[in-house]
Amino acid sequence: MRRIGRRLGFQFGQASIGFGIKIFHWGSIVINTKAIIGNNFCVYPGVCIGRTVDGGVPKIGDNVTFFTNSGAYGGITIGNNVTVAPNAVVTHDIPDNCIVAGVPARIIKYKSINNENKSTCNSNLSAAVSSHTRK
Question: PANTHER family this protein is in (predicted)?
């Protein structure tokens, strides 16, 4: 994994990542070695999951998607079935079943999760983002 990572531009170190990680494109992806990530994690290029000065690292639940150039920093918890929009920066805890966007990231929509489809990789992010109006 380390050789492939150097060649393709991602760096995971000894991070605890569950089953089913999906890397959608090569590019700069950095995940702190102490981060804890659940199952079915989807990641796009430009994502950074790191620590802050106090040493805290994110804990990320199952079925979470980080889109391009997004990040999560500090000792925060991101719940299950969360979608992080492109260019969003998560700096505080995020509950289950929602879509977050912005800097710092805010909840822009709650997901209605049914038993048939809990995957966030195929979620309709563009509809949620387009319906969001900035204040």
Answer: SERINE ACETYLTRANSFERASE (PTHR42811)
